Amino acid sequence: MTKETMKAVGLYSYLPIENPESLIDVEVEKPSAAGRDLLVKVKAISVNPVDYKVRSPKNRVESAPRILGWDVAGVVEQAGPDCTLFRPGDEVFYAGSITRPGGNSEYHLVDERIVGTKPSTLDFAQAAALPLTAITAWESLYDRLSISRDKAANTGKTILIIGAAGGVGSIATQLAKYSGLTVIGTASRPESTEWVKGLGADHVINHFEAFLPQLQPLGFDQVDYVLCLNSTEKHWTNMAEAIAPQGKICSIVETDELLNLTLLKNKSVTFVWELMFTRSMYQTPDMIEQHKLLNDIARLVDEGVIRTTTSETLSPIHAANLRLAHAKLESGRTVGKVVLEGF
């Protein structure tokens, strides 16, 4: 019996994005759902920094094509026998797991506990821009920084979001504002500054300059929370200076340099990491929280509280367009999210 195949974009070698072999069109076996897995027919995908970080040049060659991609919107084709949350025909969106094949393929397997119901007011391309960044922003604010979802509890409190114009920053800015915080974003160009203001930030400062001298004229001698979405080590001293005593700092950006934690000691500051793949990577008992929060995000989108952050859509989904999307992200100058739709 001939096995059914599907289109995908993958890699065998880890190469610079300018190399046409860095991402190639491939045909692979179409999977089937078992356990709590859903088989999703992929309608649209988005790219994130994790894609080019995983793809970055290294001395390793894969024996089978490695498929990247951790933002998907699509339709459930098949539900495993243990599934209770979804059934065939349901429209879904999710980010998936870093330890499994990514979603840059016609069909994709994903555990239903990290999948949400697609916002009904968005098309697939608009929805595909949201999952990874929304999960990261949500977990950063509410799980890691322990910010209350009760607006009244946040009256008078401030958050500084470093890199507010990027994918995660675009969602975090909206969620923080919705939660009643005074939001100060960072950006460095006129277009990114306008983008951040358009998302609801109360103030915007430049992350290439010292923070406190920019915050003080705005009336802030300190901030209660810092969410770092860009170059943890570069901003470390500025964050330590700006954070309030007993404040909290969360970063999503790994560092190759040692961080001087002693800078936080006198203020009794909490520092915490966020990685949205932690729950799926370690199969934590609370994995289903990502299903719940994606449904909350969908509700907020449908209520008009959160807007999608799609800035550019490419079609169709193939290697050439994915290489173009990776190159755009690697430039470090993208605002919002680059989405691809349709095989």
From TrEMBL:
Pfam families: ADH_N, ADH_zinc_N_2
Domain of life: Bacteria
Xref: Gene3D superfamilies: Medium-chain alcohol dehydrogenases, catalytic domain, NAD(P)-binding Rossmann-like Domain
GO molecular function annotation: lyase activity; oxidoreductase activity; zinc ion binding
Keyword match tRNA-binding: no
Enoyl reductase (ER) domain span: 18-340
Keyword Amino-acid biosynthesis: no
Keywords on record: Lyase, Metal-binding, Oxidoreductase, Zinc
Family annotation (InterPro entries): ADH-like_N, ADH_Zn_typ-1, ER, GroES-like_sf, Lipid_raft_assoc_Zn_ADH, NAD(P)-bd_dom_sf, Quin_OxRdtase/zeta-crystal_CS
SUPFAM superfamilies: GroES-like (SSF50129), NAD(P)-binding Rossmann-fold domains (SSF51735)
Similarity-based family: Belongs to the zinc-containing alcohol dehydrogenase family. Quinone oxidoreductase subfamily.
Name under which the protein is recorded: Zinc-type alcohol dehydrogenase-like protein
The organism of origin for this protein: Paenibacillus mucilaginosus 3016
